[in-house]
Design brief:
The protein is mainly α. 67% of the residues lie in helices and 7% in strands. The structure holds 2-acetamido-2-deoxy-beta-D-glucopyranose. Keywords: Cell membrane, Membrane, Receptor, Signal, Transducer, Transmembrane, Transmembrane helix.
């Protein structure tokens, strides 16, 4: 139950950051269209704003360590799944009283 709530919060955070990033990229196109449509006295400001947005690498980061978007969420899910599989395999090995040999030494997992 606790894990589902935490996963939901994490999904909400990454999804929101992803969508905001996509909207910022979309706004570049929209500003360009506005620039083409209106040839009036505010055109200089529109061009300046357009250039500013175009060169703005919009993204959310965790203190510049990594980007926060959907790829972060998928990475966390796959890492958790990998560790879960390792734990399940260890559990199965313990239950089967698993033994294996490595350079004349026998290792034993379980009782
Ligand atoms: C996340 O953003 C990428 C583009 O940066 C987009 O292709 C993808 O559909 C988005 N994912 C979701 C779940 O909205």
């Amino acid at each position: 139950m606790w894990a589902v709530v935490k996963l939901g919060v994490l999904f909400h955070l990454t999804y929101t950051c992803n969508q905001t990033k996509n909207e910022a990229i979309k706004s570049t196109v929209i500003i360009h269209q506005i620039q083409n449509r209106y040839k009036n006295d505010i055109i200089d400001e529109i061009i300046a704003f357009s250039k500013q947005v175009l060169h703005w690498n919009f993204r959310f980061t965790a203190h510049d360590l990594f980007d926060i978007d959907m790829s972060t969420f998928y990475l966390m899910l796959t890492s958790a799944a990998t560790y879960l599989i390792i734990l399940i395999q260890m559990d199965i090995a313990v239950k089967q009283n698993f033994k294996f040999s490595f350079s004349n030494t026998t290792f034993r997992i379980g009782k």
